[in-house]
Structure formats: structure tokens, C-alpha cells
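writing this on my phone so excuse typos. first protein, seq and then structure
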Amino acid sequence: MSDKTLGLLGLAAKAGRIQSGEFSTEKAVKQRKAFLVIVASDASDNTKKMFRNMCSYYRVPFYSYGTKEKLGHAIGRQFRASLACTEEHLASALIQQLEQINQE
């Protein structure tokens, strides 16, 4: 797991550009404010499927990454199964990191 990815998530959270939790993530996607959605690898299959389908419909990049604990810790919360990045450039940087991890 890349510390750089978690670091970028922390930076985005400090900038106020992360919506976390199922309700807030869903709201960001449906309002077309989300540029990236990340769901924890240990989230329930229903949660992953719901966000995968929603992101496909709204054409938002979707990644499954990390654990609930690590995602939450990266953004200064406890556990977070899902989060959305609402800043385009930070989302692009995160996507680059996640693609690099997927290729390894």
C-alpha cells in the first residue's frame, strides 16, 4: 500500500476536498461534484457494487483501495468505507497513484 496515496488523501481532506461516508459520497456523485470515488477493499460487497454501478452511471472513476481503518486514518477520521474527492487536480494525482499500484 502506497503511503503517497494516503498522503494525498490527507492533503485533500485538509483542503476540505473529501466527502466521506456513504451518504456524503453518494450525494457528491449525484450532484456531479465527485471526480473520484474510493471504496475500502474490506467494505461490504453491496457497498462496492452500489458505488461501482453509481460511478459507472455518472462516469466517475471508481477504485477499491485500502482498508476502512487506513482510509479513515488518512483523512483524520475513524473508519471510512467510502470517500469522494471533489477537487479535479487532486483526483487526477490520486488516480495516477492508484493506477501505478494496480500495475505493480
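second protein below, same order as before
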Amino acid sequence: MLKLPEIQKQHLIIFTRYPEPGKTKTRLIPALGSIGAANLQQQMTEHTTLQAKELQKAADISVEVRFAGGSLQLMEDWLGLDLFYQSQGEGDLGLRMERSLFDAFQNSAEHVIIIGTDCPELTSQLLATAFKQLQTAELVLGPALDGGYYLIGLRRLIPELFANIDWGTSQVLQQTVTIAEKLDVSHVYLPALADVDRPEDISIWEEFLQQEVALRENSDVEA
């Protein structure tokens, strides 16, 4: 068992990859180039961690970053020393998520949520809603428009939810829900959101950035 530092009852795990050109967002390289794809990975991860830190201002929630690629030193230099970092380790996505959940629950977490960094519309308010839903439901899912999910939250480890899933396909959400129903696991959904995985998704991020700029401009005007 991995001993985690100062884990709260509500624990948020962010899955991401160090933005090394050529090794991240590979499906976007034909459209953006290896450096452009890595820059996008960097920007989206920074946006997601910012939302996590905003959430921490309003609630007692610990945040852990599970990373692939890079190193502990590189992650700390990039995202700062105020987060806890741990390598994702070996295995497919299901095994890596199961491992992170096992560690969290073994370290006294009671409500654990895993998110990726591909969904720009995932806000601190939505994360707060997900934790609130875990008060009554055993499983919370954030459906992605491509058939996967951008968030999964649990009150206990249910290994079956991470086995025999066709990761990276449009079947992920439905396969997960089917398993939950067979196990009679109560589950609820967050709003369906778009994520940025393929060249045709790049406009989602661009539109998000434009909205952010407009919000800042309006805020400056009001101030």
C-alpha cells in the first residue's frame, strides 16, 4: 500500500501526462505538431489543476496528481509543490485507476473522484457537485460526448468497474454502467461534456479560450 500524505475524507485524483513533445496528445500531432500537442496538454492540465485548487478554497479536499512520463522533479517544477504527485505505474487505464483508488481508500479517504485533463468545461463547481452526489450515490459518472467519461467518483473500491472495459472507445461509459447495474451499484450522472482528444475537437478548446478572454474583459470593465 502506498502511504499518502495528509489525505482528506474527500480526495480528488487528477490523471495527466507530462507534456513532452511526441509523447502526449499523439492523436492531435497531425493537426498541431508534436510541440503544439504538448503545449495543449500543458494548458489543459494547468486549467484542470486550477479548478482543483479553486475547489480546495471552498472545501476540505486533498488533491493528488497521478502522472505518466516525466519525473517527480519535473512535475513539481511544472505544477508546484502544493500538490501531491505519484506515478500512474504500469498497466492499462483501468488498472492504473483501480490502483489509485485502492491507495486512496486504504489511506482513509471516503469519497474519491478521478478526473482527466481533457475537458475544459469541468469546473470547480461541477467537482463540488460530484462530491455532493457521492453523499448518497455509490457511483458518480461524468459522461463525455464521445462515449467515455471525464469523471468517476466512488465511495468504495469496486474493481469490476475497471476490468474488461474497451478503453479509448465509444463503449467505455456504457460498459461501465452495465457492470454497475449488474452489481446493483447506485449511480448518478453529471452533465455530459465534450473532451479534447482528436483534431476535430481542437475547436472546443479554442472556443473555451475565447470565452475565458471575454469573461476577463467583462470583469475588467465592471471593475
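The helical segments are 29-58, 72-79, 93-106, 124-133, 172-182, 202-222. thats all i got for now
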